[in-house]
Amino acid sequence: MSWRTILGVVALNAWFLVVGVGVLFALRGWRSWGELARLCGLAYMLGIAATAVVLVWALVLTVPFSVATVIGAGALVALVAAFAGGRTGRRLPSRPRPRVPGWSLVATVSAALVVVYCEAQFRAGRLASLTEFDGWFFWVAKARAIFSFGDLDPQFFRELPHHGYPPLVPTLEAAAMRFMGSADVVTLHLQFWFLLVGFVAALVGLLAPRVRPLFLWPPLLLVLVTPRVSGYALQAQADFLLEELLAVAALLIGLWLVDRSDWQLVAAGIVLAAAMLSKREGALFGACVVLAGLGATWRQRRTAWPRLVGVGVAAAAATLPWWILLHVRGLGAETPEAGGIGLFSHLDLAWPSLKLTFSTLFDYHQWLLVVPVAALAIAGAFVAGARRLPSYALLLFVFGAAALTYTTWAFPSIPITKAPVNPIIRLTGWLVLVTPAVIPLVLNEGWDAE
Amino acid sequence: MAAAVVVATGFGLGYYAQALSHLGDTASANSRLSYEDREIGGGNSIVVDQEAAYEARGLIPPSARYRVVTGGRLRNATSLTGSFVDGWYRSFLIPRRRSPTASWVICYGCDVGALGGAYTVRWQDDNGISIGEVR
After folding, report:
1. Which of B21, B23, B35, B97 to substitute to test the interface with A, most A CBs within 10 Å?
2. Is a pLDDT exceeding 80 seen at residue A96?
3. Which SS3 state, helix, strand or coil, does residue B75 take?
4. Interface confidence (ipTM) of the complex
5. How many structural domains is chain B composed of?
6. Above pLDDT 70, what percent of chain A?
7. Do A380 and B3 touch (CB under 8 A)?
8. Structural element, H or E, at residue A183
9. pLDDT in tens for each of the 135 residues of chain B?
């Protein structure tokens, strides 16, 4: 809780940004320095995703975890990216020419509101204590173990609850602790502040030049002020990071549906890999994103499907080292109690699970009117004659709701309730965070169709 | 589509002040907490006595093993103490490792006669919590 620890977190996240800029250079480059500034949020999310995935692999391979490892992993990613960028003939633009961006009144006011909101989040998180149950019970405990022992200590990772949960979030937290110089569980909340800001910046940077300000900012502001986001976004556990990564991946695939630029799919693959290494549900929800893309490209399936399936397979393959380690150590993967055909033994839970999903998605006290707004936007875009992006968004919500229902249905021992014993409220956040990522595109396409 | 934009704008702006107020209240409440309150966090509703946590960290060497033993002689326990005190110490005391046969004992109202040896108390409080070694 000192300036030194704060500077440590700042340094770590600056490093993620530098790495991400390298990845962005390899993937697409930038035509001007202003464009790079606009895409800094995406670069940060790519940097954190790529570096954290490599760090998890390093831990699985028993590479000692230290500040040098974090820097080395990032440098490795950046070097590979720079080499790949150079091979494809990318060049940096000429010297920057300072100019005032021509923002509309809506964009300027909205951006100011978001900046003030982020500052308020910073103050709230700056001295937050580690009260969240899952946080101290196992997420941060695992991070402390990585920080203290420099590896995935066999005893702690066997004894701590949920040994089968992928370790990307504890790895990220341990990296923050290493850069802070101590296991400061208070300042650790600022790492999650950086993730929130990076997520918002990624969405704005990707969407601002493509959609009208009135379609971009209101959904974003609505999601940020929901009681759930304003109250829990900086918790030191995996839910919001997972949801932020999934939302960015959903946006990148949505953009690919329009542009068909392969860099968007590669970037989505990197982000999805990190999501799948963040929580078990990452694979399930990540599959929903890919499936929605498949459904939206039904007519172009011969050319589109191999690429989209490739993204899903590559992202899932990135998690293999972790599952192999679990197998080698003789630890179960903590698969659902009633997964697969086990669901048919609990058919009586299907309808209550679905009802719980919908009542949570539409829970005003958690998410205000985010999902109704998304539904209105999708319906409006269909009525206006748009098809591609409204179909994609509709499928995202349909598959997403089915996946959320599965998370309750497949665990018969968990009560069907919104009480904290059931993670349904936390899990529904992924569709809520997808809303400001995808719905602006839907609204824009609908408007253009009209 | 216009309805979606209007609803999002209305509720986004309408709840903006409330969100900022909530975040401001959270920041104020957090700043009023002591260093110990913040660091122990969720453990405040479990450990009964913050000093016990810090004494455990001070007395038990980082390379040593320990065990948390609970019993019925604990005073002022919360409803969460019995179920979660072991798990909370497991996280708080890393890199110290747990072992059911460890000589270091964090006794939460335990029966010291059943610890398996002579128990030398190194710290104790009025709630029936003690920290010591079994030889």
Report:
1. B23
2. no
3. coil
4. 0.92
5. 2
6. 99
7. yes
8. none
9. 888 999 999 999 999 999 999 999 999 999 999 999 999 999 999 999 999 999 999 999 999 999 999 999 999 999 999 999 999 999 999 999 999 999 999 999 999 999 988 999 999 999 999 999 998
Residue keyed to tokens 């497991």: B90
Q: What does the pLDDT look like over A392-433, one tens digit per residue?
A: 999 999 999 999 999 999 988 888 889 888 899 999 999 999
Residues B66 and B108 in one domain: yes
Contact status of B22 with chain A (Cβ, < 8 Å): yes
Same domain, B26 and B49: no
Give A389's pLDDT tier (boundaries 50, 70, 90): very high
Phi then psi for B64, rounded to 5 degrees? Answer: -85, 165
Residue A102 lies in a domain: no
Q: How big is the CA angle at B65 (ends B60 and B70), to the nearest 5 degrees?
A: 85
Task: Note whether A407 and A428 are within 8 A (CB).
Answer: no
By residue count, chain B amounts to: 135
What b/e sequence results for A73-96 when a residue is b if at least 16 CB atoms lie within 10 Å of its CB, and e otherwise? bbbebbeebbeebeeeeeeeeeee
User: Which chain B positions have a beta carbon within 8 Å of A145's beta carbon?
Assistant: 94-95
Is residue A203's pLDDT more than 80?
Answer: yes
| Residue numbers of A between 146 and 185 with CB closer than 8 Å to B | 148-149, 155-156, 159-161, 183, 185
Cα A134 to Cα A53, A137, A166, A421, A445: the distances in Å are 22, 5, 14, 11, 41
Determine whether the interchain pair B94/A384 forms a contact, defined as Cβ–Cβ distance below 8 Å. no
- Segment holding B104, helix H or strand E: strand B104-108
Specify the number of domains making up chain A: 1
The angle at the Cα of A362, spanning A359 to A363, to the nearest 5 degrees, equals 75
Domain that holds residue A135: 3-88+108-449
Any CB–CB contact under 8 A between A261 and chain B? no
Cβ-nearest to A225 among B15, B27, B35: B15
Q: How far is Cα of residue A278 from the mean position of the Cα atoms in its chain?
A: 9
A94 domain residue, yes or no: no
- Domain extent at residue B6: 2-32
Q: Calculate Rg over the CA atoms of chain A.
A: 21
